[in-house]
Specification:
Length: about 375
């Protein structure tokens, strides 16, 4: 499933006009005045590591000179202050719907909201000042989930699980899962964990959101400061301070592999994609996720030879069907988590019928445990085979 996600273009969201060194210097000075030390502390980290500290100092001096000549700023005893015209120009650079704000923290938050193309409401402004809130908006923007409000960790985890499930089908379906009808928390986190470059299981919804947002934004660490800098850096250009107007909009693309890369198998069975022989592919191969009709047909083909019971009531362990699919269709690039999620979606849509086991008979407890799918407060163990 990870490969399927890599092959499909994700929305980056970061495609608003870029800001030059001069733009940022003017914004910082307009937010309550500033010294050169303030500029170095507040602006240089946004442009790092594309330009060094010494390069920034040279660019900032050139920007100060240019802004002074244009009568946008003035300097008194080493303190830089924006003129009325400078404040107007700085406010205009944020967009007509944005306010300049009385302090640099306000301006920085406004820039973050602009980078993430989200609504400038009081609740959103408050949310982006917290790590989980900012991480949520980063993910909502990246995965094209509405950003009118900041989703709670539980709601966002459910949305991410749906994204992962749809990507497993190669965006060929839209699931009917939604709030109140989605997967339970742990299976939902397992599915959402497939959206990482290296799929993993996360212990809580909050950690899932922060870690995934940090990876997507390119933050150096999982902190509010690092995530803010990662988002702000998408708005900037390391060009010279004498660049004229803002540059044309660009759409930086995430560096996603176009092909599935073999990696060391994880000890967790849920992410085991290697054939049963244990041999990994010698070379990378292009993957082609199935549509739901192809998936269901392959499931029935895999279930019939291993089904048990009498005519009209034949059932196959889900674990045995998964092993057959994993061997027969390596080109799909599915993990066990993705396979079970797709199976639950096929059951929900009426294309496949799942069945639960009578645990009182105590038969083959290992197969029952490996087969279980938690869905809507029910545990499924079998695929029902129709003759």
């Amino acid at each position: 499933m990870t490969a399927a996600i890599g092959q499909s273009e994700q929305r980056t969201g970061f495609h608003t006009p870029t800001f030059t060194v001069r733009d940022l210097v003017l914004l910082r000075i307009a937010a309550g005045s500033a010294t050169r030390a303030d500029l170095q502390r507040d602006i240089a980290p946004i442009l790092a590591p594309r330009i060094s500290g010494s390069e920034f100092r040279r660019a900032a001096e050139l920007a100060i000179s240019t802004l002074g000549n244009a009568q946008l700023i003035s300097e008194t005893k080493g303190r830089l202050t924006a003129t009325a015209k400078g404040v107007q120009v700085a406010g205009t650079s944020l967009g007509s719907a944005r306010s300049l704000g009385p302090a640099w923290g306000d301006v920085k938050n406004t820039l973050i909201l602009r980078a993430l193309e989200t609504h400038d409401t009081a609740s959103v402004k408050k949310a982006v000042q917290r790590l989980e809130g900012l991480a949520a908006i980063v993910l909502q923007n990246h995965f094209s989930i509405a950003t009118g409000r900041v989703l709670s960790p539980a709601d966002l985890r459910a949305e991410l699980a749906i994204v992962a499930l749809e990507k497993a089908f190669g965006n060929k379906i839209k699931t009917g899962l939604g709030k109140g009808a989605g997967l339970p928390a742990k299976p939902g986190r397992l599915l959402a964990g497939q959206l990482f470059k290296q799929p993993r299981e996360i212990a809580s919804d909050g950690k899932l959101i922060v870690q995934l947002a940090s990876e997507i934004a390119g933050a150096r660490e999982q902190s509010i400061e690092a995530l803010e800098l990662a988002v702000l850096s998408r708005l900037t250009t390391a060009g010279n301070a004498d660049d004229g107007a803002n540059r044309a909009p660009t759409r930086p693309k995430r560096q996603e592999p176009s092909q599935h890369r073999p990696r060391t198998p994880t000890p967790k069975a849920a992410n085991d994609r290697a054939p049963l022989t244990g041999s990994a592919p010698a070379v990378a191969r292009s993957l082609s996720p199935p549509d739901i009709a192809e998936f269901c047909s392959a499931v029935f083909d895999a279930a019939r030879p291993v089904a048990e019971g009498w005519p009209g009531n034949r059932k196959a362990f889900i674990s045995l069907v998964w092993k057959a699919i994993r061997n027969a269709r390596p080109d799909w690039g599915l993990s066990e988590i993705a396979f079970k999620g797709m199976l639950a979606e096929a059951h929900r849509s009426g294309r496949i019928e799942l069945a639960t086991a009578d645990l009182k008979d105590g038969r083959d407890l290992k197969s029952l445990e490996e087969s279980k799918i938690l869905y809507k407060n029910t545990v499924w163990h079998f695929v029902r085979v129709q003759e």
